[in-house]
Amino acid sequence: MFPDPCVQFFLALLALSSPALCAAADDPASDPGGANLFIGLLLPLNSPDFAPAAEAVRLGCQAALGFADKKQPLQVVRTDSKQESIVAQYEAAVNRGAGVVVGPLTRSGVSALASTGRVSVPTLALNVPEGDAPLPPLLYSFGLSVEPEARLVARIAFARGLRDAVVVQAATLLARRVSRAFADEWLSLGGKISDVQDFGAQTDFVEIRQHMAGSEAQLMFLSGDAVQARRVRPFLNNQIPTFATSQVNDGRADPLTNADLNGIRFVDMPWLVQTERPAVMIYPRPANFSVELQRLYALGIDACRIAAELLAGYQRISLDGVTGRVLLGGGNSLQREPVQALFRDGAAVAVEDSR
Questions:
Q1: Which of 20, 30, 169, 348 could in theory staple to 223 by disulfide, Cβ–Cβ 3.0 to 4.6 A?
Q2: Burial per residue of 214-225, b for 16 or more beta-carbon CB atoms within 10 angstroms, e otherwise
Q3: Which band of pLDDT confidence, cut at 50, 70 and 90, is reported for residue 131?
Q4: 21-35: string of b/e by CB count within 10 Å (b at 16+)?
Q5: What are the angstrom distances between the C-alpha of 168 and each of 155, 176, 180, 196?
């Protein structure tokens, strides 16, 4: 699922961190008696399916705390993917003196913790729970869900004066969820959706080309990943401005491979499309990580920066993060606003204004 994390990078990162931070990670005894509050990082590091993702988050978190002006003690709390293990380790960390907990990472883990009614310290979940039940007090949601990106794309397009949209979506549950998020926001703003086109393995793309050729829509929302987008884009009407989410960016910068993506406007995290941004440059970059692990590493950086703010008692947070601008001003969900970008010469580049 994911490549193995870079061991050399991990060792180098630990060497850069303070001795206190290195001792605290994975070592509950480093905070004797829980005399000092610490950040508990609750991750499924003992799960074969989720360990690579969890390790990327851990490395990002340790990078954030290692380069912070004020060092915060950290304990890494290992779990498997079982809900009872996650809840038990959460409660054990709180009993040891965790002032803030970062995690769980999985949706099922977040749901299990939320349902206990025993969230007793500020807790930054790295996913959203299953279903629509409201989060309990002190449980905050922060993650990389694509649906909020789709709603942001709708607001960006509407602000450009565009009103009539066509949706082109891959025939997958995720693509349809993302399309629905875009459509809900677009229609609430007063926009119109004149057509919806599905595509999949059995699609006649020539028929799509013929259908789209006469479209008078002002914009196209393309819902799908990079592979799916490359497959369908040659058959679309490229005279219509095309918008997408970060799904369309798989991190490859290849003029030939991405030729058909040129001109697509999307939103993505500064970590991937704005590498010279000061808030991004200060952190070490694990160059051998896949784009999926890069995203999770960036999530770990911002999550533990937020956790440090919560541990310090801040109720409102405004963070120039590597995943985007992050805001907490009330409620349980942190708002993450990625930056605008487009494909130019086969590479994803950030733009101030995507016109």
A1: 169
A2: ebebbbbbbbbb
A3: confident
A4: bbebbeebebbeeee
A5: 18, 10, 12, 6
